Amino acid sequence: MEGYEAIGFDIEKHVYGEARYPAHLVIQDVLTLHGSQFRDASLIVASPPCQAYSYMAMPWKRAKAKASAIRADTTGDSLVELNRLFNACFRIQSEASAAAGRHIPMVVENVRGAQPWVGRARWNFGSYYLWGDVPALMPQSVKAVKFNPHGSKHRHGSWFAISNSKSRCQKVPGPSVLPAVDEESGTKIGGAWFSDPQSTFRRNGSRPPARKQASAMIAKIPLVLSRHIAAVYRDAALPWKEEER
After folding, report:
1. Measured at the alpha carbon of residue 62, what is the angle toward residues 189 and 206, in degrees to the nearest 5?
2. Residue 10, exposed/middle/buried by CB under 10 A (0-12, 13-18, 19+)?
3. Closest Cα to residue 130, out of 51, 58, 47?
4. Stretch 159-174: mean pLDDT, rounded?
5. Distance of alpha carbon 151 from alpha carbon 62, whole angstroms
6. How far is it, in rounded angstroms, from Cα 18 to Cα 16?
7. What percent of the chain clears pLDDT 70, i.e. is strictly above it?
8. Kind plus residue range of the DSSP H or E element containing 9
9. 42 φ, ψ to 5°?
10. Boundaries of every domain in the chain
């Protein structure tokens, strides 16, 4: 939509309801990719799986135990395994830039719960948190005020999602200087993933294909955010300075 020739990489082909993947899709394990394959790229956008990060951000006993076990592993192997796909994005970018002889910008999207494990995000659009070459890309967001169902405010950093506690775990577009996100392009389906009886996950709990479809739909970056990223980096004269990198 912004004039790019887009090529996507994934380990399997997901089904987005009635829609199809809007670009050329290559089925390949990202861990087997070498950045030289991207030497001609203008921009790399990555969105590693967020389920493990989201789960460990939950106030559940098992979730806390899993996080504690990773932190207690003095070898660091558990942390490496947790972050292997996230870190692969930056390896690919480094290899791509080296092969191209120029810096190839990259934006990595994930959830807020990834921050304790991979470092603080550089910007966020609602519950979509971004790492990489973000400062040259994004405007400053207006911070959302969070409330519980009874109207009282949660402290800063609360795990409750924007608006109310029934939306916990759900990616929710937040206030921004970007154009407003409409329901079709930005709102996640599935309800509260685990607590809502009508949730796509709850209703299709025993059917893996349906769960995969729901997961793919929930993970989609809102169209308005995708187009903003694409439009900014499309311009050859973007305000990018070597010392800012």
Report:
1. 45
2. middle
3. 47
4. 41
5. 29
6. 6
7. 60
8. strand 7-10
9. -90, -25
10. 7-237
pLDDT given at position 66? 96
Largest CA distance in the chain: 56
Alpha-carbon span 162 to 153, nearest angstrom: 11
DSSP string, 32-93: G--GGGGTT-S-EEE----HHHHHHTS--HHHHHHHHHHHH-TTSHHHHHHTHHHHHHHHHH
Between 21-25, 95-99, 198-202, the lowest mean confidence (pLDDT) is in: 198-202
Q: Is the pLDDT of residue 8 over 60?
A: yes
Sequence-separated (6 or more) residues with CB below 8 Å from residue 42: 4, 104, 233, 234
Tell me the pLDDT band of 138, cut-offs 50, 70 and 90: low
pLDDT band at 180 (very low <50, low <70, confident <90, very high): very low
Is 30:8 a contact under the CB 8 Å cutoff? no
Please give the structure tokens belonging to residue 82: 């947790």
148/164 Cα distance (integer angstroms): 5
Residue 116 CB burial class (10 angstroms; 0-12, 13-18, ≥19): middle
Average pLDDT, the chain: 74
Q: Six-digit token pair at 24? A: 């050329």
Query: What is the bridge-based pairing of β-strands 128-132 and 106-110?
Result: antiparallel
